[in-house]
Design a protein that fits this description.
Elements (H helix, E strand, L loop, with lengths): L5 H15 L26 H7 L3 E2 L6 E2 L1 H8 L8 H50 L3 H20 L6
Antiparallel strand pairs: 1-2
C-alpha cells in the first residue's frame, strides 16, 4: 500500500473543493478536470467517486459498473456464469442465426422455383416453335396468348416472379 504524503492530501482537498462547486447538473464543463462530457459529481478524478467505485465491479464486456445485488444479478453467483449482457447478446445472436437459416432456406427454395420456372418457359417456347414448324402460326399465336394469361394469373397468385 502506498504511503500518502501531505501534498497528496492537499491535492485531494483541492479536488474535493473543486467538486463542491458543481454538486448537481448545471450544463457547464466538469469543474474538476474541465471535460465537457461529464460534470464533477461523476468525474473519475473526483476522490469521492473513486471511493464509491472501490465497491463496484466493472463488466469488461458492456463497460457498466455494478455493486451489491446488481453485481450478483449481472455477473452471476459462480465464476462459470456468463454476465447477463453476454447471455442477452448470445440470445440475440442465436435468434439472428435462426432468421439467417430461414432466409437461406427461402433463398434455396426461390432458386429451385426459378429453375422450374425457367424450364417451364423453355418448354412453352419449344411448344410454340413446334407449332410454327408445322405451319400452325395462328394456333401458335393463340397458344402464346393463353400461356401469357396463365402466367399473369400465376404471377398475381405469387407463383411466378416477374
Amino acid at each position: 500500500m502506498k504511503l500518502f504524503k501531505k501534498c497528496d492530501y492537499e491535492s485531494a482537498i483541492v479536488q474535493i473543493k473543486a467538486c463542491m462547486e458543481q454538486l448537481e447538473p448545471n450544463g457547464k464543463n466538469c469543474s474538476l478536470c474541465g471535460d465537457n462530457d461529464h460534470q464533477a459529481f461523476e468525474c473519475t478524478h473526483n476522490p469521492l467517486v473513486a471511493l464509491e467505485r472501490i465497491h463496484e465491479y466493472k463488466c469488461f464486456f458492456c463497460g457498466n459498473y455494478f455493486s451489491g445485488k446488481d453485481a450478483e444479478d449481472h455477473f452471476g453467483l459462480t465464476e462459470n456464469d456468463n454476465p447477463k449482457c453476454i447471455t442477452v447478446l448470445m440470445s440475440l445472436i442465436n435468434k439472428k442465426n435462426k432468421e439467417i437459416e430461414k432466409l437461406t432456406e427461402y433463398q434455396h427454395l426461390a432458386g429451385e422455383y426459378c429453375e422450374k420456372n425457367q424450364k417451364l418457359v423453355e418448354a412453352i417456347n419449344g411448344l410454340i416453335h413446334h407449332f410454327n414448324d408445322y405451319g400452325l402460326e395462328e394456333e401458335s399465336f393463340v397458344l402464346v396468348m393463353e400461356v401469357e394469361k396463365a402466367r399473369t394469373v400465376l404471377r398475381e397468385l405469387g407463383y411466378l416472379s416477374n
